[in-house]
Amino acid sequence: MKRLILILISLINISIASSAAPARKQLFDADWQFALEGSTAWTEVTLPHDWSICGAFDREAPAGNDGGYLPTGKGRYRKTFALGKEYAGKRLRLYFEGVYMNAEVYVNDSLSGGHPYGYSSFYVDITPYVRPGSNTVEVAVDNSQQRNCRWYTGSGIYRHVWLYTTPQAYIDEWSVSVDTSDPHNISLKAELVKADGSREPIERNVRVEAPRLWSPSDPYLYHTTIEAAGDCIDVTYGIRTIEYSAERGFQLNGKPMLLNGGCVHHDNGILGAAAFDAAERRKVQLMKEAGFNAVRTSHNPPSEAFLRACDELGMLVIDEAFDGWRDAKLAHDYHELIDRWWRDDLSAMVMRDRCHPSIFCWSIGNEVIERKKIEVVTTAHRMAQLCRQLDPTRPVTSALCAWDQDWEIYDPLAAELDITGYNYMIFKSESDHQRVPSRVMMQTESYPCDAWNNYCKVAAEPYVIGDFVWTAIDYRGESGIGRWYYEGEVDNEHWVHPLFPWHGAHCGDIDFTGYRKPINHYRSMLWNADGEQLYMAVREPDGYHGKVKTTNWGTWPTFESWSWPGHEGKDIEVEVSSRYPSVRLYLNDKLVGEKQTERCQAIFTQPYQPGTLRAEGVKDGQARESVTLQTAGDAATIRLTADRKTLRADGQDLAFVTVELLDAAGRPNPNADNLLTASVAGPASLAAFGNADIKDLDPVIDPNHHVWKGRALVVLRTTSKSGSVKLSVRGAGLKTASLTLRSSKP
Fold this sequence. Notes:
single chain; mainly beta; Immunoglobulin-like; Jelly Rolls; TIM Barrel; 5 domains; eight-stranded parallel barrel; six-stranded antiparallel beta sheet; 8 helices
């Protein structure tokens, strides 16, 4: 039995000294200029900024299939800022949450710092380089060495930049940690960095009576402060315990929990890699609504905003550092950096993130190519030991995989881990348990179509603590994974040959617009007994648009649609997911039949006829609830639905507006593909306009875009001015729709 009592914290800096003193932590995102290499034209940008998503899809793009056929290259950012007398004698540091990649930071033309790995956060002490009055910071970014990642990375300063202003002696933000003997007695520890660079330990003890424990269902957080030598940091922390063993599985706060997880990449769909706080929070909200209780940050550390959202909304996290190690998967991936930088990058992840109560596990790698070499055990040992040294409260994992019959030879590698990650290999769990009875396992990647088998395995075998499907949300790059296609189109999997025009991954339970696919409703129903009980969708008839071909990560094209013109009188399959013992299906109020549910599903085959399809969940002979699908007429109107009505006028906030095409009776038309035009009036801009089609080559920054399957998504970004924001969307033959939001100063 391994029992870990964890008191975890996150940091929010506050102002110090008098009201005239500058804030300790100031957002440094506004008033930048950007230029691509070779261009003399500078454009005004507000960070976060991803220049790749602003470009055109190109079959010949150097990042190719992996990078979603979008441009990369080199770019440069610059910003001029003024320092008044209130900054005299202060230590000034710039904090970059993420720059992809090979960042070099210049202050007043002097190289002052930088970092090569595009997913690591880093500090730059600019104190020696600044002067009273006007100063200029420039950041050179080089993402030209392609290919360097197996998924879409984005390019540029894609996460926030902050200016830290402290006394010469200051509290190191990443030094804060916790030590506790029980949930009532908390010892907060940190280090004071003195003017000469030496470090002095700080400790503060806090007594918490009747602690309220953090969990996904009750993500409760506490607050306190740490002060030393005139510096002050506000601390937010959560209290919880985890246990894991082959005998009792995974327990949170002493209660058994099955991990229904999803893997996610760092991009935000039609926004590219830009890590807006609202977009990062939305990802977590979408996963919560989709029934997940855990996420794996594949295959790199996520943004701080994403982890804060996991803390606040309640989502357990596997925080992952690297995709590969020393043997290359791509010509310019992390194997070029590992020998010089692995310790810095792994330390940056653990020290930055160890204060988040959502994180329950560190991951040091994913499907490393050198897995058969004896040296891999040494690498894993060193990385795992560093994690445990920096944070002894959490287990360490790595995602293991085999592409041949050799699996058991990885036992020495697995032995270096506290929890062994299985990518698509959990069918080995029973024999592995017999061979290594103490091993704790979780499937760190699984195929979407294996939802039933994976749920049953986790539910039945306590030594298998969870399953993380690949993936929870569609993502840019790794183009074509999870797709379906038709006979005659380019065939095979994404690693075999380029699949242009496919430029994204369609294996997610949730698409680019935030829509939950039918496979997600089914998966959530398996794992959440008290959640959704009844759901209905229809499988596309084979040959309707062409003979259907699916791929390893794909599922059969299935939609919430009873609109199949031209298929009248021909058989069609209706897929009803249900937790009820049986299901009745009606077409135009006539009983089609009643079936017992098996594996939480009932499948009906019925000749297609337009009208109303209704499924009823039946228990004890009585219909308890129903769901319907209706045949839609031609698209006539546009419906706009915003995720919020009020926005912050800070230049950072976003509104996500779902665009749907309806017929004259108000029924969604799932076949519509109309071209629409979006316009914005007031203190906001059109940040992106797109749909969920991973073959759609229209630029997402263009105000003109087609819907796909009757849906699209508009993202609005506020400015720093208050006022009413009006979005209008129009299309030929459609009634123009508009909505008004309010943007106000925070």
